[in-house]
Backbone:
């Protein structure tokens, strides 16, 4: 609950600072510094994904990008306390597409209203789909909400954004992040070229000194993702490539719909109770 309250406060503060000509790196630094100054941990690098990008974009160490008129920005943050994570996201529209933003919010809220023990996970997908389609857009079919656990950002059950027969049944005590994405594009995302977020798959000895330094720096993250800009290691790019090649780390490429499209996102984390849920990030 504490992490959720902090996440709400920090997400709001970060979103308010997104303006035309403001650097993306400035927002990422502000959000992550605020998480730590409030006494919490950064559960994953702040995602700042523009326009057709739905997720997994974060500034590089020398990023020079700034927000522009017409941009649709997804700000997705994770806050943790002793590994217990609050995951929340919003969309900032620097153009004029309020209905697209409304579609993801309405889908999220309608799905949350249906959450209680005994509900099949596919029911939530049908609700999300109907809310987004009714506003003239498509949900992103190959992105889902997800369960959360200590130091674990993604675990079952996945929460679909499209109708899905059957599936897991919600149980009291589960922690879920529901995050609909609405798009003007195809409804499917693909891997883009940018790769700035990484996560550890296994623990294994390595020979390259720079690779050993990276593993030492990320040790306290307990497997949670990190960004290239978080590292203080010379020749980090070479070491990252070696660790990925050896399947010790994995990368999280930016996820994009077709060029020229726009994607909105809305997300809350909740704990399922005996008769509904408590939304920790609301």
Residues:
């Amino acid at each position: 609950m504490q992490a959720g309250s902090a996440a709400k406060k920090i997400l709001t503060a970060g979103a308010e600072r997104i303006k035309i000509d403001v650097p993306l790196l400035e927002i990422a630094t502000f959000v992550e510094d605020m998480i730590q100054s409030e006494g919490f941990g950064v559960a994953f690098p702040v995602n700042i994904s523009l326009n057709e990008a739905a997720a997994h974009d974060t500034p590089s160490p020398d990023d020079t990008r700034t927000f522009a008129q017409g941009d649709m920005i997804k700000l997705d943050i994770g806050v943790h306390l002793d590994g217990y994570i609050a995951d929340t996201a919003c969309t900032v529209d620097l153009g004029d597409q309020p209905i697209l933003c409304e579609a993801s919010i309405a889908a999220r809220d309608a799905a949350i209203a249906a959450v209680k023990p005994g509900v099949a996970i596919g029911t939530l997908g049908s609700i999300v789909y109907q809310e987004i389609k009714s506003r003239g857009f498509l949900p992103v079919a190959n992105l889902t909400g997800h369960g959360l656990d200590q130091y674990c950002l993604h675990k079952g059950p996945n929460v679909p954004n499209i109708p899905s027969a059957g599936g897991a049944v919600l149980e009291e005590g589960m922690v879920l992040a529901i995050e609909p994405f609405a798009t003007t594009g195809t409804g499917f995302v693909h891997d883009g070229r940018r790769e700035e977020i990484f996560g550890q798959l296994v623990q294994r000895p390595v020979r390259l000194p720079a690779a050993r330094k990276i593993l030492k720096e990320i040790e306290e993250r307990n497997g949670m993702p990190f960004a290239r800009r978080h590292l203080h290691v010379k020749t980090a790019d070479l070491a990252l490539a070696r660790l990925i090649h050896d399947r010790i780390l994995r990368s999280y490429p930016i996820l994009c719909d077709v060029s020229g499209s726009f994607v909105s996102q809305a997300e809350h984390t909740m704990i399922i109770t005996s008769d509904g849920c408590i939304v920790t990030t609301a």
